[in-house]
Records
---
Amino acid sequence: MTSVWDGYALPGGRRLERDPQFGFLRVMPPPSAEETAAFYASAYTNPCLVHDPDGRAELVVDLVTGSGRVLDVGCGRGEMLDAFRRRGWQTVGIEPGREYADQARARGLEVRETVLTDEIAASLGSFDAVLLVHVLEHLPDPLATVQTARRLLRPGGILYCEVPNDFNRLQTAAAATQHLRPWWIAIPDHLNYFSIESLSRFIAAQGFELARVTTDFPVELFLLWGDVYIDNPEAGRAMHQRRCRFEQAMREAGAGDLLEAIYERLAGLGVGREAIVCGRKTT
């Protein structure tokens, strides 16, 4: 599978190359460890705020019998862990950012201020669910992280992966019609660019049965309607609020099941803002 983005030229003499096995796009050559460290130290001040943590927690809870133990890798301020705790789960977080780890701990959550390594994993025990929420797009070696997460899961455990659904057709249509740059390319922040299809293939290849593949609101629709929020934070907040009102209204009307069915159908078409894949560890 190839597209016009294969070999796409990036600043600094870099390009996008497609992973030959899984089909996602990656930045080559990747930024150096020094460049990446400097970026996160100076420019990365806000973690990705999880949209609808309760809804996302429910996706996982529905796939596990009873309550369990969950690990959130890159837990930020602990929104997802808090949603699981309210559902009776035992929670552990990993967060390398001191400020965010402190904020999560202020919620009364157990959070280790580190990154996930095999050594750290060996000290954590086993889990019924491991969360990788907006993690894989940042990593020079996403495969190693997924393999480590798999080892942490009990048989039948759930790996929840969420990444931006980039280069989807709504996104590229919006860029073309509104004469926008490919705003979703963010270097050195994002090194890997997954689609719903390529993330599903990637997770399945690591010994997981695909238990749920879905997405969320396709915010690129706003761009196609003429509401250009790119490089306009105020407009972006307004679009986000409209999206949240839509989802809240659906749930208040007792149509949450319809909302989830819509998002699963959109995922089947390859569109939606996020790629969300739940994989069950096979024995």
---
Amino acid sequence: MRSALAGALFALAAFLLCLFCLPCLPCRPCSAAMAYEPDYDFQIAEEERHRMELDLKLNEYRKNIQRMKLKENDVLSRLDRYRQDAEKTRRDIAVLELQAAKLKSSIAKLNEEMKTSERMLAELKLSLARRMVDIYKYGLPSELSIILSAESMHDAVNSVYLLSRLSEHDKELVAQLRNRQMEIALSKKTLEDHSERLDQQSKALMRERDKYNATIKETNKFLDDLRREKAKAEQVAKEMEAAQKAVGETIVTLKRRRTEDGTKGSDYLADRIARGRGSMFDWPIRGQISSPFGTRVHPVFRTKSFHSGIDISATKGTPVKAAATGEVLFVGWMRGYGQVVILDHRRDYSTVYAHMSSTTVKEGTVVKAGATIGAVGNTGTTTGYHLHFEVRVGSEAKNPLDYLKK
């Protein structure tokens, strides 16, 4: 009889352990699900890096303006400043948008985690309530009777072990309950902080967008005023020709420095020259030529001036490709040209890519033909999104159509 009772009590204790087992902790999202989550930290870091690079380029541009003793208030410089302010604000907006998206994602995750925690808290409370009922029903006298009714020492030891496991489980249950309550309180505080930061980010984003729109409006007003004032328009024509001349001088100066430094490179155009001048360069982008090489009526100022390259129409952000393999001679901002990349192809040949919204290469590196070097924009003196492309022999601008593949 005692053996049967001990066995039954042993089975009951084992059943209770199983019944009161601890609820599972919520698992982390699996790696497959995480793979679809945007890496906001990486994107924000990239945008911050682009913003810092832009600041460096603009600082170098301003130093060049001072070295050339050009007036800060001449027409091209003012236009450049408007475009630069717009580009800087656009970068600030991109960073703020990513930060806001990251906060929204964090808030959504916190809300999900809080729902899970609250559900588990309810389960823990229910388990604890059931356990209290059982303790009330099976208190100390019952526990002693389980031990004393054991037929052998082995059964008594097993009973003591199971009862101690139940006691440990009770402590763990209470500890989990406290931890889960603390997690919910912390999540609520974090949620409040994130919500407050998101509100601040949204306000800052609104201010930056207003600033960007005001800059664009001011730029357009300035351009409209220029079109109406013939004297200023003629001044701009002279300034543009000076700017084009400055590009040629920059190329010659930088190449001379490379030669003096003893820098040597491959003959990147050897095979292409053998095929003939009309096959030397690939098209950096494909599109309609909106402004040809040579004397033209300037689309902004309605004055006749020399145009040192061709303008190829394209949508904003279109990737700009290297027209041939070459070394990056210059990356930065140039007066009237906006953001510029100049490639040195050796044999005295260079190509110029202007008005870009961003650049992706560094000075001194070699890029292969067809490699992306930047994106189409409207920086500098432009009427819209396009690529200004030049072919230079020494400092002299040549008609790109004579060198581009047909």
